[in-house]
Amino acid sequence: MLDLEEQKASAEGMAGEHTLAMTRCSELSLTGVREVRSFDENEVKMDTSCGILLIRGEGLHVKSLVLEKGEARVEGKVESLQYQEEKGFVKKGESVFSRLFG
User: Are 42 and 100 in contact (CB under 8 A)?
Assistant: First the structure.
């Protein structure tokens, strides 16, 4: 069982601050990762606490992923990083009627 400090660190990693560090344009270390939505050797798409992050490049692969801590590492030739807003997703607590008529 996790003690209070470990639980706090785990919660902060998942929903907390998003950081991104790149080394030699070939390795990314990220925090604040909620989910990896899709990936192939040319693009990795992940949900972060700052929105959807698209990583584009060549030979990309997810080296490690620890969703409990909100951490990920991506390796390969990184050519671009782009954040997108979530479009088409329901806002928390928003009903179908408010989206249709609101």
Answer: no
